[in-house]
Amino acid sequence: MIKMSGECSRENTGVNQIAPFSEVSKFHGHVCPGLTIGYMAARAGMEELSVDRDIDEELVTIVENDGCGVDAVQVVTGCTIGKGNLIYRDYGKQAFTFICRDSGKAVRFVLKSDFNIEDLDPELSELRPRVISGTATDSETLDFRTRINCISEYIREMPAEEMFDIKHVKVEIPRKARIFNSVKCSKCGEMFAESRARMENGEIVCISCYEEYTRGW
């Protein structure tokens, strides 16, 4: 259990070439345990692979959830949806795989099953429902945010090995992102990538206009 104090505002900025947590929380909008978990995975992943922040798809990251930690991964690694090197798999797992194209190495981080935020501060579970529902007092809300900040700081000082099961894995490295020609939807008239085209009554249509035929199979 962490100890509450009035000095829970420090951040770990001692890692070379890794974005400080302040940049991550600014991008995300607030500090929370989920964001911190993603930050720790991304930081440790880059250190494990001995790589710098991605510029042009040198790195690939596979995330297995769509939670707060994915924002941290984007800021730290430079892997993004827009560049095509952030791959989302809807498995609902706190799992992150970092891949270096040049070396072919990949490392996967999975949050340990016995890692529980509530164990770090049991009082948090009592405050959270009231804060989320909007029934908490100003004092309770402030207490909640202070505790969250303290938990985040505590997590950032933990060795990655205590938080995650870490394994070097073999993966099929995804191809770099492609740029496709655009085609015009015969229904709405909007342009879209030809790789997403559908045919309907002999005409090209976009996915949002396409009337799918199914017999329930």
UniProtKB/TrEMBL annotation:
Key word Glycoprotein present: no
Span of domain Zinc finger DksA/TraR C4-type: 179-215
Domain of life: Archaea
Record carries keyword Metal-binding: yes
Domain Formylmethanofuran dehydrogenase subunit E: from-to ranges: 27-165
Keyword annotations: Metal-binding, Zinc, Zinc-finger
SUPFAM superfamilies with a match to the protein in the record: FwdE-like
Database matches in Gene3D superfamilies: 3.30.1330.130
Molecular function per GO: zinc ion binding
Protein name: Protein containing a metal-binding domain shared with formylmethanofuran dehydrogenase subunit E
Organism for this UniProt entry: Methanosarcina siciliae C2J
